[in-house]
Design brief:
Blueprint: E1 5-10, E2 13-20, E3 28-29, H1 34-38, E4 58-61, E5 66-69, E6 72-73, H2 74-80, H3 83-92, H4 98-109, H5 117-122, H6 131-145, H7 155-181, H8 194-203, H9 214-227, H10 234-243, H11 249-260, H12 268-279, H13 285-293, H14 314-329, H15 336-350, H16 352-356, H17 364-374, H18 381-401
Antiparallel strand pairs: 1-2, 2-3, 4-5, 5-6
Helix pairs in contact: 3-9, 3-18, 6-7, 6-11, 7-8, 7-18, 8-9, 9-14, 9-17, 9-18, 10-11, 10-18, 11-18, 12-15, 12-17, 14-17
The structure holds carboxymethyl coenzyme *A.
Length: about 425
């Protein structure tokens, strides 16, 4: 709390509200007593000015283009750390020492297999189902398979549920992919690291040995690191809202997966690559830029813009460099999609419309190019995002459950419907 107070004047009455100070970032006005004092609510659709929780996990400075996990800049974690290290950091607040990392990695690795019965559950889906539809269903169904870790009031069960989700999400994601291509499910391999194991479950087949390319594995690990958490975005807020009712953790994460699917959120990586392919060649870029600026056209440049970043998305910078590395490694020279992406970025960044609105490429602009080169179909892109974001959702969910100030999330509204009226018999309508 600071000494500052915020004064609100409504008509002849004046009210004071405390101002709270975070460790970094803007102060917030504590309006929890607003309704009791004034009989009014605030109106903030899209929560553009509302802090819905107190959190110590992730911080974004949108003007500087800075992203911190537990205080560590994302570019340092991407360059020097690994996804599994980042998982530990997000969950427990500090970077692990060697032994802690070894133990944590072993714990996650030992939980990667899913209940055998789940294989039959998968078979109920149509082969052409979108893998995000499968993910939403299967993650929700984990509560049915692992009901011994659904008591949110038991810290041990909360911990087991957390590790289970981080460990099993890649297995479920790979199974969704294998199911869609008609290949047998591949069991996890405990001798491989997190990213290599995931690649093996997606791309190996029982008929021949599979060698993981370390550069691709490193690129995947980087993608997971960059997507691991992003403070109170739509899917994380969904997880928190679902969890605020004391719903079990599997149900909460399934809610997050469903929200992430939207093209304005995690679905943007799929939409961005589809858009780059639709543009096809550099000479068609001006036509699409014009459409993005036309208010009568719903088209938006996918992979551009962000609610919080009003500067470069620091994740996009790492992603752009990785995209080049992966394409070079795979010998994909003169990749037309990458060429369109690079040129589109250049043209948009010089355009007054994008400059005025501070619209920069976001993380999804380049991630699709890497995933496409690695061999994932576009429908899997958001699944990979969900896999990586699971640790962030869980860290935020655990933080909320442990918060003594936790309350069920229950926003109010500005009602504009009909006032009370009497029921009319159907014969008179
Ligand atoms: N292309 C063209 N114009 C845009 C775009 C875009 N991608 N994004 C925003 N604008 C315009 C928008 O039309 C508005 O113009 P005006 O002021 O003239 O009405 C202005 O910029 C402000 O946009 P907004 O819609 O009020 O901003 P928002 O904070 O509500 O939306 C966003 C943020 C990410 C939903 C939006 O920028 C968008 O839809 N981008 C494309 C989808 C995308 O790439 N999403 C991934 C986000 S990063 C990963 C993740 O979080 O999941």
């Amino acid at each position: 709390m600071t000494d500052k107070v915020a004064k609100l004047v409504i008509g002849d009455e004046s009210y004071e509200f405390p101002v709270l100070e975070g460790s970094v970032g803007p102060d917030v006005i504590d309006i929890r007593s607003l309704y009791a004092k004034t009989g009014m609510f605030t109106y903030d659709p899209g929560f553009t000015s509302t802090a819905a929780c107190d959190s110590a996990i992730t911080f974004i400075d949108g003007d500087k283009g800075e992203l911190l996990y537990r205080g560590y800049p994302i570019d340092q974690l991407a360059a020097k750390g690994s996804f599994i290290e980042v998982c530990y950091l997000l969950l427990y607040g500090e970077l692990p020492n060697k032994q802690q990392l070894r133990e944590f990695e072993a714990l996650v690795t030992r939980h990667t297999m899913v209940h055998e019965q789940m294989h039959y559950f998968f078979r109920g889906f149509r082969r052409d189902a979108h893998p995000m539809a499968i993910m939403t269903g299967v993650v929700g169904a984990m509560a049915a398979f692992y009901h011994d870790s659904t008591d949110i009031n038991d810290p041990e069960q909360r911990e087991i549920a957390s590790i289970r989700m981080i460990a099993k999400m890649p297995t479920i994601a790979a199974m969704a992919y294998k199911y869609s291509v008609g290949q047998p499910f591949v069991y996890p391999r405990n001798d491989l690291d997190f990213a290599s194991n995931f690649l093996s479950m997606c791309f190996s087949v029982p008929a021949e040995p599979y060698e993981v390319n370390p550069v691709i594995a490193r690129a995947m690990d980087l993608i997971f690191t960059l997507h691991a958490d992003h403070e109170q975005n739509a899917s994380t807020s969904t997880v928190r809202l679902a969890g605020s009712s004391d719903a079990n953790p599997f149900a909460c994460i399934a809610a997050g997966v469903a929200c992430l699917w939207g093209p304005a959120h995690g679905g943007a990586n799929e939409a961005a690559l589809n858009m780059l392919r639709e543009i096809g060649t550099v000479d068609r870029i001006p036509e699409f830029i014009a459409r993005a600026k036309d208010k009568n056209d719903p088209f938006k440049l996918m992979g551009f813009g962000h609610r919080v970043y009003k500067n470069f998305d620091p994740r996009a910078t790492v992603m752009q460099a990785t995209a080049k590395e992966v394409l070079d490694l795979l010998g994909v020279e003169n990749n037309p999609t990458l060429q369109v992406a690079q040129e589109l970025e250049k043209i948009a960044l010089q355009d007054q419309y994008f400059i005025d609105r501070k619209l920069y490429p976001n993380v999804d602009f380049y991630s699709g190019i890497i995933l496409d080169a690695v061999g994932f179909p576009t429908s899997m892109f958001t699944v990979l995002f969900a896999m990586a974001r699971t640790v962030g959702w869980i860290a935020q969910w655990k933080e909320m459950i442990g918060d003594p100030q936790k309350k069920i999330g229950r926003p109010r509204q500005l009602y504009n419907g009909s006032p009370s009226r009497d029921y009319e018999e159907i014969s008179k309508r």
